């Protein structure tokens, strides 16, 4: 499975279609992948495992989310006022 993830990351161009978010507006998709990335990192750190599989979520949210949103969310996380559950 790890090889499968590495292969997908190598071929990654932009966020693929996600059937959970079929509409043109990809705001929820951006938000969900941002949360999933940070949840994945937290879970992998707790297990002491390599966080390489989390890079998929990182690349998806980086391609979907405006930089200003990500910067704001990162500031909120640093301040402890982030509204999402990570």
Task: Give the topology, please.
Blueprint: H1 2-11, H2 27-47, H3 55-64, H4 67-79
Helix pairs in contact: 2-3
Structure notes:
The chain has 86 residues and is an all-alpha fold. The protein is built from four helices and no strands. Helices cover 63% and strands 0% of the residues. Helix 2 packs antiparallel against helix 3. It is globular, with a radius of gyration of 14 Å.
Helical residues, percent: 55-70%
Overall mean pLDDT? 88
Radius of gyration: 14 Å
SSE order: HHHH
**Strand-pairing-aware structural class:** mainly alpha
Task: Please outline what is shown here.
The chain is mainly α and 86 residues long. Helices cover 63% and strands 0% of the residues.
From the structure above, extract its key features.
86 residues, mainly alpha
């Amino acid at each position: 499975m790890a090889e499968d993830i590495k292969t997908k990351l190598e071929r990654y161009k932009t966020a693929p279609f996600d059937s959970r978010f079929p509409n043109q507006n990809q705001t929820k998709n951006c938000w969900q992948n941002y949360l999933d990335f940070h949840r994945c990192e937290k879970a992998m750190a707790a297990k002491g495992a390599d966080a390489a599989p989390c890079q998929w979520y990182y690349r998806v949210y980086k391609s979907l989310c405006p930089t200003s949103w990500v910067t704001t969310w990162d500031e909120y996380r640093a301040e402890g006022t982030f509204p999402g559950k990570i």
